[in-house]
Amino acid sequence: MARSPRLDAPLGRGTTRARPTSRDRFGRFTEWVARAMGTPAFLLMLTLFCVAWILWNTLTPDHLRFDDAALGFTALTLMLSLQASYAAPLILLAQNRQDDRDRVQIEQDRQRAERNLADTEYLAREIVALRMALEERNTQLVTRDVLRNELKALLAELDPADEKHGEKLGAEKHTGGAAS
Protein backbone atom coordinates (compact mmCIF):
# COMPACT_ATOMS: atom_id res chain seq x y z
CA MET A 1 0.00 0.00 0.00
CA ALA A 2 1.52 3.31 -1.11
CA ARG A 3 1.75 5.90 1.60
CA SER A 4 0.64 9.36 0.53
CA PRO A 5 3.10 12.12 1.37
CA ARG A 6 2.23 14.44 4.22
CA LEU A 7 1.68 17.96 3.01
CA ASP A 8 2.01 19.55 6.43
CA ALA A 9 5.62 18.42 6.94
CA PRO A 10 8.78 19.30 5.01
CA LEU A 11 10.29 16.72 2.73
CA GLY A 12 12.94 14.57 4.37
CA ARG A 13 15.67 12.35 3.01
CA GLY A 14 13.33 9.39 2.58
CA THR A 15 10.88 11.09 0.23
CA THR A 16 10.54 10.07 -3.36
CA ARG A 17 9.57 13.47 -4.72
CA ALA A 18 12.19 15.83 -6.08
CA ARG A 19 15.09 13.40 -5.86
CA PRO A 20 18.35 15.26 -6.28
CA THR A 21 20.23 14.63 -9.49
CA SER A 22 23.76 13.27 -9.55
CA ARG A 23 24.90 16.81 -10.31
CA ASP A 24 23.22 18.06 -7.13
CA ARG A 25 24.76 15.25 -5.12
CA PHE A 26 28.20 16.01 -6.48
CA GLY A 27 27.66 19.72 -5.81
CA ARG A 28 26.70 18.99 -2.21
CA PHE A 29 29.76 16.75 -1.91
CA THR A 30 32.03 19.56 -3.16
CA GLU A 31 30.50 21.94 -0.64
CA TRP A 32 31.04 19.38 2.12
CA VAL A 33 34.70 18.99 1.08
CA ALA A 34 35.20 22.76 0.97
CA ARG A 35 33.56 23.15 4.36
CA ALA A 36 35.59 20.32 5.88
CA MET A 37 38.92 21.53 4.49
CA GLY A 38 38.33 24.98 5.89
CA THR A 39 38.14 23.85 9.49
CA PRO A 40 40.85 23.96 12.14
CA ALA A 41 40.17 20.28 12.83
CA PHE A 42 41.14 19.35 9.25
CA LEU A 43 44.33 21.41 9.44
CA LEU A 44 45.23 19.86 12.77
CA MET A 45 44.60 16.32 11.51
CA LEU A 46 46.63 16.95 8.33
CA THR A 47 49.48 18.36 10.43
CA LEU A 48 49.40 15.38 12.80
CA PHE A 49 49.33 13.01 9.82
CA CYS A 50 52.41 14.66 8.27
CA VAL A 51 54.26 14.71 11.61
CA ALA A 52 53.45 11.03 12.19
CA TRP A 53 54.56 10.19 8.62
CA ILE A 54 57.87 12.00 9.04
CA LEU A 55 58.54 10.58 12.51
CA TRP A 56 57.73 7.03 11.36
CA ASN A 57 60.03 7.30 8.35
CA THR A 58 62.92 8.81 10.31
CA LEU A 59 62.81 7.05 13.70
CA THR A 60 61.78 3.48 12.86
CA PRO A 61 64.23 0.79 11.70
CA ASP A 62 65.11 0.86 7.99
CA HIS A 63 63.13 -2.28 7.12
CA LEU A 64 59.84 -0.65 8.47
CA ARG A 65 60.26 2.63 6.61
CA PHE A 66 58.26 3.15 3.39
CA ASP A 67 59.31 6.71 2.46
CA ASP A 68 62.99 7.61 2.51
CA ALA A 69 63.94 10.84 4.29
CA ALA A 70 67.09 11.03 2.13
CA LEU A 71 64.90 11.48 -0.94
CA GLY A 72 62.82 14.20 0.73
CA PHE A 73 59.80 12.09 1.62
CA THR A 74 58.79 11.62 -2.00
CA ALA A 75 55.63 9.61 -1.23
CA LEU A 76 54.40 12.21 1.28
CA THR A 77 55.05 14.99 -1.23
CA LEU A 78 53.12 13.11 -3.91
CA MET A 79 50.21 12.43 -1.54
CA LEU A 80 49.97 16.08 -0.49
CA SER A 81 50.20 17.20 -4.14
CA LEU A 82 47.43 14.78 -5.09
CA GLN A 83 45.28 16.02 -2.21
CA ALA A 84 45.85 19.64 -3.27
CA SER A 85 45.18 18.89 -6.94
CA TYR A 86 41.75 17.50 -6.02
CA ALA A 87 40.97 19.99 -3.28
CA ALA A 88 41.42 23.13 -5.39
CA PRO A 89 38.86 22.23 -8.10
CA LEU A 90 36.39 20.93 -5.52
CA ILE A 91 36.62 24.19 -3.60
CA LEU A 92 36.18 26.18 -6.82
CA LEU A 93 33.08 24.13 -7.72
CA ALA A 94 31.63 24.80 -4.27
CA GLN A 95 32.33 28.52 -4.69
CA ASN A 96 30.60 28.51 -8.09
CA ARG A 97 27.51 26.91 -6.56
CA GLN A 98 27.51 29.53 -3.81
CA ASP A 99 27.87 32.29 -6.41
CA ASP A 100 24.86 30.88 -8.28
CA ARG A 101 22.81 30.86 -5.07
CA ASP A 102 23.93 34.39 -4.25
CA ARG A 103 22.98 35.57 -7.74
CA VAL A 104 19.47 34.10 -7.36
CA GLN A 105 19.14 35.65 -3.88
CA ILE A 106 20.25 39.06 -5.18
CA GLU A 107 17.69 38.89 -8.00
CA GLN A 108 14.93 37.96 -5.53
CA ASP A 109 15.99 40.81 -3.22
CA ARG A 110 15.92 43.24 -6.16
CA GLN A 111 12.42 42.12 -7.16
CA ARG A 112 11.24 42.40 -3.55
CA ALA A 113 12.69 45.91 -3.30
CA GLU A 114 10.91 46.92 -6.53
CA ARG A 115 7.60 45.61 -5.17
CA ASN A 116 8.14 47.43 -1.87
CA LEU A 117 8.92 50.66 -3.71
CA ALA A 118 5.82 50.29 -5.89
CA ASP A 119 3.67 49.59 -2.81
CA THR A 120 5.12 52.59 -0.98
CA GLU A 121 4.52 54.88 -3.95
CA TYR A 122 0.95 53.60 -4.26
CA LEU A 123 0.27 54.21 -0.56
CA ALA A 124 1.77 57.70 -0.79
CA ARG A 125 -0.49 58.52 -3.75
CA GLU A 126 -3.51 57.19 -1.84
CA ILE A 127 -2.69 59.34 1.20
CA VAL A 128 -2.34 62.42 -1.00
CA ALA A 129 -5.66 61.63 -2.69
CA LEU A 130 -7.37 61.30 0.70
CA ARG A 131 -5.92 64.60 1.89
CA MET A 132 -7.05 66.34 -1.28
CA ALA A 133 -10.54 64.86 -0.96
CA LEU A 134 -10.79 66.12 2.62
CA GLU A 135 -9.63 69.58 1.62
CA GLU A 136 -12.09 69.72 -1.30
CA ARG A 137 -15.04 68.78 0.83
CA ASN A 138 -13.96 71.15 3.56
CA THR A 139 -16.07 69.07 5.87
CA GLN A 140 -16.06 69.07 9.59
CA LEU A 141 -14.55 66.05 11.27
CA VAL A 142 -16.97 63.99 13.28
CA THR A 143 -16.62 64.79 16.95
CA ARG A 144 -17.61 62.59 19.82
CA ASP A 145 -20.68 64.73 20.57
CA VAL A 146 -21.91 64.66 16.97
CA LEU A 147 -21.47 60.91 16.85
CA ARG A 148 -23.24 60.49 20.20
CA ASN A 149 -26.23 62.59 19.03
CA GLU A 150 -26.44 60.61 15.77
CA LEU A 151 -26.43 57.32 17.65
CA LYS A 152 -29.14 58.57 20.02
CA ALA A 153 -31.29 59.58 17.07
CA LEU A 154 -30.85 56.16 15.51
CA LEU A 155 -31.73 54.45 18.77
CA ALA A 156 -34.81 56.61 19.07
CA GLU A 157 -35.92 55.55 15.60
CA LEU A 158 -35.46 51.90 16.46
CA ASP A 159 -37.30 51.97 19.78
CA PRO A 160 -39.94 54.69 20.39
CA ALA A 161 -39.84 53.92 24.15
CA ASP A 162 -36.24 55.11 24.23
CA GLU A 163 -37.22 58.41 22.63
CA LYS A 164 -38.23 59.86 25.99
CA HIS A 165 -35.00 58.61 27.50
CA GLY A 166 -33.05 60.21 24.63
CA GLU A 167 -34.81 63.54 25.17
CA LYS A 168 -34.04 63.36 28.88
CA LEU A 169 -30.34 62.76 28.15
CA GLY A 170 -30.36 65.64 25.67
CA ALA A 171 -31.86 67.97 28.29
CA GLU A 172 -29.21 66.96 30.83
CA LYS A 173 -26.53 67.66 28.26
CA HIS A 174 -27.79 71.19 27.54
CA THR A 175 -28.19 72.11 31.23
CA GLY A 176 -24.86 70.64 32.20
CA GLY A 177 -26.30 67.64 34.05
CA ALA A 178 -28.28 69.70 36.59
CA ALA A 179 -31.74 68.41 35.50
CA SER A 180 -32.91 65.17 37.02
TrEMBL record:
Superkingdom of origin: Bacteria
Lipoprotein found in the keyword field: no
Upper classification of the organism: Bacteria, Bacillati, Actinomycetota, Actinomycetes, Micrococcales
Segments traversing the membrane: 32-56, 71-93
Region described as Disordered: spans on this chain: 1-21
Organism: Microbacterium luteolum (Aureobacterium luteolum)
Protein name, per record: DUF1003 domain-containing protein
Annotated coiled-coil segments of the chain: 96-123
InterPro entries: DUF1003
Keywords for this protein: Coiled coil, Membrane, Transmembrane, Transmembrane helix
Pfam families according to UniProt: DUF1003
Keyword Transmembrane recorded: yes
